[in-house]
Amino acid sequence: xxxxxxxPVWDSLCETHRSFSFSYEDVxxxxxxxxxxxxxTDASKTANALNAYAKLTDNFFLVSENKTPTYDEKVVxxxxxxxxxxxxxxxxxxxxxxxxxxxLTAAHIEEIYALIWLVMPGYYQRRTFEMGNYFGIFxxxxxxxIAGQRMQTxxxxxxxxxxxxxxxxxxxxxxxxxxxxxxxxxKTNKHPILHTTKGNAAIGLYESxxxxxxxxxxxxxxxxx
Length: 225
Description:
By secondary structure, this protein is an alpha+beta fold. It has helices at residues 2-5, 8-14, 46-53, 109-119, 173-187, 203-208; strands spanning 21-24, 27-30, 37-40, 59-64, 76-82, 84-89, 102-103, 134-139, 142-152, 156-164, 191-197, 211-216, 218-224. A hairpin with a 2-residue loop joins β8 (134-139) and β9 (142-152). The N and C termini lie far apart (37 Å).
């Protein structure tokens, strides 16, 4: 599992999510309708792959622990290198769950999409829902908080899309949802992981549940010219 965590997008596309994979030479991307993420094993091959993938979508990411992708400046712009980190569950510290947490279905796709784009715009697609199971908390007859599953291999599942509507923050919803999804993953005998940006205030929340910072994981954000 340790080796797979070094290149999570790549291994997810080689295993559980291989049906979503668009493969180029030493570079793999998710179907852009699912998730605009890619990964590579050889940085010298990424320029051609980016040019090809740019024909399918305007904005996308390459994810790497410590390698720098090459790209063709005539075709794509490097908008930003987002410095992130990977966290892995080491000892689950389960909190009391006081909220009613609902499994989300295809009937909730538009609500999920709207809430995620309100709080954290940029990467989530409507078909991202197909990557794993999602759960939510409803208040006042509307979806106000979400957590779900994204990348997956035979050994681990990533927790993602942990968002709360701005009008409903500071009520413990994110912690309870993260704990719930963590427990659901443990039931499958797989290991929970997650990714976030360096310095994110939520890191303390994840640590309180037993997650530990393990490595850097950078997100190279490209845009088609």
